[in-house]
Amino acid sequence: MHRLVSALSVVLMALVFIAAHPGAQTSERLGSVTFPTSCATDLQKPFERAVSLLHSFVYEDAQAQFEDVFRKDPHCAIALWGEAMSIYYPLWFQPNAGTIQHGRELIEQARKVGAKTERERAYIEALATFYQGPDTDYGARTEAYAHAMENLATRYPDDHEAAIFYALALLGATPPKDAPLSNRLKAAEILRPLYDSLPNHPGVTHYLIHAYDTPSLAQLGLPMARHYAEIAPSAAHAVHMPSHIFTLLGLWQEDINSNLAAEEVGRKSAGSMDQGHALPLHFMDFLSYAYLQVGREYQTQKIIEQLVAGTAALPPMMKNHARLLLAEIPARYTLDLRQWSRAASLKPPDGATAAAQAITYWARAIGAARSGNLAQARESLHQFEEFESATGLSDPVEHAKQLEASAWVAHSEGANDKAIAELREADQLQQNADTTAHDWMRASAREMLAELLLELNRPSEALSEYQTALRLTPNRFDALYGAARSAAKADKPDDATAYYAQIQKNCQGSSSHRPELAEAREFLRSRRQRASTSMSGLHHRYAVAA
Fold it and tell me: CB within 8 A of 451, min separation 6: which ones?
């Protein structure tokens, strides 16, 4: 039986018990961490609890625990290091100037308190490289910190935490442009031996999942994905994190189960960064995508409605995240459901950042082009390019989105060679970039290329491209549907049957009215009927001969 089933059973059984015994005290499970310090002996376990929380990205709870340790032992300088680590979210978003200033103040305070061991001073000084002067570029900060952690891990080869935090620093650093997977592979090389020797360490398993959170490596992360929720079922992020791998591998029900269980754990958590209040945004994002793949688009629509209703009440830091999702999820919904006119009429959320507005205009450009409104498609493409430029970021994944929209505009103009070339270029950008599951939660350029070739009545070529897309991101509804249609038109009925059957299997129990699902059912019914008729004819001929 899959480890995931076991992990989810642990989580769900705990929740049932809590619901039945609201006054009961349950034992917290965050994994096993060993981090020796020179602080008061009775604070060793609380300190290690804080590090465990840190490894599962329960940042605010970790910060509160480190603060409590320092309050009880004002000579514990390493606890101030922990506070500074708790406000640096290396795989989430860049800190603002205020956070950098606060981190620098904590480091200065730790220096004044004075760590009692060389090792503890080394941790503090390594993190000081991240919180250096206010004008330092973020990329330079992350690279300096990764280099400092490399030196620390080399200096203390028996300190597993040094190696683990070095691996995290690598994942948080900007990879070389000519080697986008290099930091991931290096981090995995550090962590993989520790996974065997420290099977209950939350950071080892968590960071391996992040290292493998890209299509070409995702299969390597499946054992960790099936194990992490077992290690730290009390941390909502730990219960969610396996869904990054499940998303990339098209394991939709496991994906849904992970995020639903994470929502339940988060509702009982005190830490706001553990999704314990308001809207569990990150989990909703993954759920909305998985539901579209299994014919439960009505659930995605409910998530959109929840976001619309709840965004205004969110704290400022989460409000922009919610607005980003209010751009991303409707774009994903309308394009995946081939609702071109609806996509063309999308409006950016109120107060949306330039990045969120760019997503809306990307979807509008494609929707307008696909529904025959060329003037609007051109205007939306222009607006996308303006908002993308306004972000100030040079991102190959976003440049690929520009090429995708441009390609569909070119197709509407009759410039099909240009459209094909742009989609091939976009595909190369996507595959060569340092991408994660979230980057692939919109259709890949390869899938769009296949769809364009099918529209141009080139089904054999389209089928080949769909098959490549499905190897990259398996089990996507639209890719399976396109492959089935291409195979049928290319006179490969057995292949078409296999793809349509997979759609039907994925959507088992669905009440969806998607025409693609109805088409799959009708194709399979017709094939069964023809096979039955053929078999009856064969039996008749044998009977006559006898």
Answer: 462, 478, 482
